[in-house]
Amino acid sequence: MTASRNSRVPPPGRVDAIVVGASAGGVDALSTLLPMLPRDFRPALLIVLHLPRERPSLLVEVFSARCALPVHEATDKEPIQPGTVYFAPPDYHLLVDAGVPGPTLALSQDAPVHFSRPAIDVLFESAAAVYGGRLGGIILSGANADGARGLASVREAGGATLVQAPATALVATMPAEALARGPVDFVLPLEQMPAVLRAWGGAGAV
Questions:
Q1: Which parts of the chain are coiled coil (predicted)?
Q2: I want to staple 143 with a disulfide (CB 3.0 to 4.6 A). Which of 9, 24, 65, 202 is the partner?
């Protein structure tokens, strides 16, 4: 199922970064989505996946072996590079700062949001403030409302929005909450998402 396109969808090639939020079922969703992106994919991908705070993350090791794009755990004050996947580390919020000459990553141990640190809303809202209409936002499988407010902030800043079709998610709560918050540009199963991402980055039409 696809949502109707509207004037908020940036022209092809206008998206510099894509923020992604997931929780329960998110590893499986990302394992389908990320390996489908080509080596020449231009936008940076900033990802918050709810993780246990007390254990090191293995996401970089898991996804580096599966993806054509470089995969890193985000570090504080790191410049955001095109065509790179960044995962939020456990027990830190991941944010975007304006930076000079370009946007940078920031880490924070402020209070959890929706009982989560990292929280999806925190990343999406900070990225929307920096990138505005040059941002894409994606909500995948998950079990709470984190990300609904953040995706709305991406939409309100003029960015593009995409939600996993709830019926195709391992846990439908997070996509459903995002859709209940307001209209989105696309509602799709995982296998149809890469075409939208490539179009956002200027690598093909939707």
A1: none
A2: 24
